[in-house]
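Risk register update: the risk that structure generation would not scale has been downgraded. Supporting records follow, first protein first.
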Amino acid sequence: MGKELLWGYIGKTGEIEIKPSFHEARNFSEGLAMVRIDYQRGYIDKTGNYLIEPQFIGAGSFRCGLAPVMTDDKWGYIDREGKFILPPSFGKAGEFHDGLAFVETSGKYGYIDPGGNLAIPPEFEAAEDFKDGIARVYKNGGWIFIDKTGTPIPDFQRKDEPWILHYSEGLAVKQMDDKYGYVSEEGEFVIKPKFSQAEPFHDGLARVRTGRNGKWGFIDREGKYPFSGKFNQSDDFYEGLARVLTTL
């Protein structure tokens, strides 16, 4: 019987910083990361110690000092001590982005600020996080884009999916034939297309893999592997740590 795959965290040298021991793990945000043991979710600090013990059915990352969590069948928001600042009263709740978080009440989505004030009334069938002052929402049978006042932006277009293959730290992922590489803002390849999958740079490193079923590794801005570790699954570096799925 094979070893169980668990989530842990590596540092930028590729060494394990927090032992793989979680069934689920999120990126660090504001110094904390959501992790799951069996069916309970809590929060650890960068030493791997619990700041908030696993106790929630659902949970998201801390932003603006608050994290969305689910108890019973409702979502609310807690502070870093695990105390509810906004009581569980929402059918669904997102993380704060650009100072707003989507929430669902009575089947409709709107947006609140960290004080719990309604910033955009609940009038959408679905809603996504804000990014750079713009969010995508579903209304009247179609997706539209709104600004932070809730006003539609009718002429907004996402050219070449910039939110997915967007520029990050001066480089962008670009596909040529069936391979991916990285281009500068002038559109010139800085790292040749040789990867089967490639993700944007975060904290100076980017996730890549070669081969359809290959394991994930990390490259620097010169396209070199700073460490040899390869992982079944991994995520970008945030606040100096990256979550990885592996065995000890």
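Supporting record for the second protein:
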Amino acid sequence: MKKFLLTVIIFLGAVLIGMQASGWRSFDTGTQYNPPYHNADEGQPDDKPDGEGRPEPSGMPILGESAYLTERQVQNMTEWRKAAVELAKQHPDQVFYCGPADRKMVGLTFDDGPDAIITPEVLDVLRDYDVKASFFFKGNRVKKYRSVVKRALDEGHLVLSHAYSHQELDKMSAYEISREIEAAEDALWEVTGQRPAMLRPPFGAVNGDVIKESAQHSHKLILWSIDTLDWSHKDRYHIARNVLDNVRNGDIILMHSDEDKGETVAALPLIIEGLQKAGYRMVTLDQMLGLEAYKKQN
């Protein structure tokens, strides 16, 4: 009996830790979701006709669910999603969270790498399926895992900025925001010889100063329109269905490639095969958005 109680306590502790682990102002739509067993060989979610019944990018809601969020996290996420859509409307040349709705393409994006295990495994899957993606790397990890960063670039993926130290930029001064952007850019330049022109702010934390400083550094701000919530509900089938049940033309899909995302790696073949079956092309963000991924070199 004691062993049973100890097992239950450990399990509940792990769930609570998982709920808080992201630091991301852990938001969601609030729907309780029980993912069914899903196999890549089984029928995929309904193929949606190209462009039919979908909103234009300016009004596309941000989607993705997790059953492991607190009430407060749900409320915060709902508020953040609405605010992000409004920011993209107000700053259409600087803030992007989705691509055009008239083309059947999506962008796979990965945050929080590089690392020694998960990012290489993600790269292996992408190579096997001949799919290109966009990686937002933490500047303070780039030099430590330079071979992984170089591999991502050499294999045709975008290597972009996730700021330097993964802090909430909207809680910083303008000077501190500038230093975060510059330090990450310098680290990527040293390893890749490219200076990124796209920035994903950690946790999606954006305010007027973040918009202003990113523009001054010639960085476009890139958010997302589908959140797999792979940091919260770490189950490959749930992660995959967060994409395949919600996918629309122009979606920018958020995943992560840091150390504890083994289920994200396992979900990736399901996601790729499901998107291919539904007729979607997976492209890099510069292709989708018609933007430069890197600054022009003098």
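Residues 1-58 have pLDDT under 50 and may be disordered. On this basis the risk owner (M.S.) recommends closing the item.
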